[in-house]
Structure formats: structure tokens, C-alpha cells
DNA sequence: AATCCATCCAACCGCGGCAGG
DNA sequence: GCCTGCCGCGGTTGGATGGAT
């Protein structure tokens, strides 16, 4: 088993406080020089991670709600393992937290339901491939901006085809995955299964806004 | 009470993108 | 165009914890 080059150890309260003080004073930047400035015996990346995932004031701790879980599932179907993008849609949640929650809870649940292939790390690819976004395959997207465009296009697409979606009947995964080979197949998201789910998938707003 | 085992999640690593020189 | 440093991301690891035996 590979031995990590730097020993894993938890952050003490004092370390946290030093980090908080420094970031509040100097902002979220210059991470590489932060350890020297604060006297912390951590690397800059470690400090950054600690701040972004746990110390930042707007971090939301605690269990994920059902609506959050639904949203994660949907976004993962669209984006695959783009955890930072997914987390961006969940106010107060971090990519690490979403990723861990996915791996420890949701993935297991979907496997039990027969809705997720454990050998595939990217459920989203299957959905994207069978969508009409054939020229915007998410798996090939190189940055968040492009991915954002894809999401927005997909949102438009979903809206366009909303009235084509049947009422509440779960889709047959196998059939639909096979159908992914067909470039003429329409995206068939079961929106009715998630009546409260907001699909306003722009990156700059949160997921509750488009009803007014 | 002791041990084993599975699970969770905080933390680390490696890599790619980007900006500045 | 190349190099270097910084930043951010996704994948992985390993310690902590709790349940089962």
C-alpha cells in the first residue's frame, strides 16, 4: 500500500483559527505562501482545502435533504463526476462533500435500484449521448464555461420537450441506454418525478428562482 | 469485553488549465 | 512559444467510528 508523502493528520482548533484569521485579513489567495506567513506546518493546498471545505463561513454542515439528493442525482446524470459544478448548484455544499455523499450514499442507493452501473463512473455520459445535444457531448467538455453552456442548452432542451414527457412512469434504463446510439432520440427526463426540482441550471444563480 | 469488519469522510495526491513573465 | 507558479478539480487513501459477532 502506498504511503502518503505527508502524514495525514487532523486540523486542531488552533490551526483552524490561525487559518481563519489569515484568510479574513488577506483574502482567499496566495495559498503557497500562507503556511510560512501563519507558521502552520501544512502545505498551501492543504490550507486551501481546509478553508474551502470546512472553515468558510457559508458552509452548510449536516445531512443532505431529499431535494438536495434529487438535485445531485439529476446533475450527476447531466454532468457526470463534475463535482465542483454540481456543488455549485447546492448553496453551502462543497465539491468534496457532494462527492463523498455520492460515493457513500447515492451511488449505493442507485445500484440497489438498478439505476446505476457500478462499473461506470459517469452516468451522465449515457444521458448526454442519447440527447439531442449530440454536438455538445459533456464528456468532452474542457472547462466549466463550456459545461455550463451544455447545461443551459440541456435546460432549454428539457423545457422544449417537457410536454413530451410521460406522466410519472419511470423510464426503462436498459432500453434508453441502448437508445443512446440513436442520434434522433429525445432526452426523456422524468420531471414529474421531481416536481420541486428547479432546472434553471445556470452557474451564477441558485436553484430556486424561476417561478416568479 | 474484545475483535473483526464495513462504512464514512477528512485529507492528500497528481494532473491540467491558466496567467504572467 | 516556453517556462514557472498558482489554482482548482477529481480520484484515492487511511484514520475514525460504529455495528456485528
TrEMBL record:
Residues 3-55, 56-106 form the Myb-like domain. GO terms for molecular function: transcription cis-regulatory region binding. One of its GO terms (biological process) is response to other organism. Residues 166-175 have a biased composition (Acidic residues). Keywords: DNA-binding, Nucleus, Repeat, Transcription, Transcription regulation. Residues 3-55, 56-110 form the HTH myb-type domain. It is found in: Nucleus. Residues 165-191 are annotated as: Disordered. SUPFAM superfamilies: Homeodomain-like (SSF46689). GO terms for cellular component: nucleus. The keyword DNA-binding applies. Can form complexes with MYC2, MYC3 or MYC4. This is Uncharacterized protein. It comes from Acacia crassicarpa.
